[in-house]
Amino acid sequence: MTYQISDRITYNGRTFDLYSEPFDIYLKKNNLDDSFPRTSTANLKGYYTKWAIKNNLLYLIELESANESISLEFLFNKNKDIVAKWYTGELVIPFGEKIEDDNYVYLYKYKNEMVFQIKEGKVISMLVNWGKN
Hints:
By secondary structure, the protein is mainly beta. Helices cover 9% and strands 47% of the residues.
């Protein structure tokens, strides 16, 4: 299987890979999970998203499909400040030293990770795992 392109997230002014897929939940809840063309074996979900955590809220910042930006207004009736109220779950954000590159979902495994617990778009906790093996 081809390595998959990861979504990106900005937290505290730094941008990281995001090893979770909160937009996928939105698509499933709205029966839109087959809405994006799969134009690359490196992006089987058919889309790419950019996120930010600001003021303890998870924001969807950008949506792209087939290398074209898609207006967020198309899905949300506004083009910015989209709080991911549909999402409850974990966000896994790897960082630091790469320790493995044979993960078949995402490109690399990293030594450290931040794990955010999100409830209806709000950060309820954050844990940093240091020195993961």
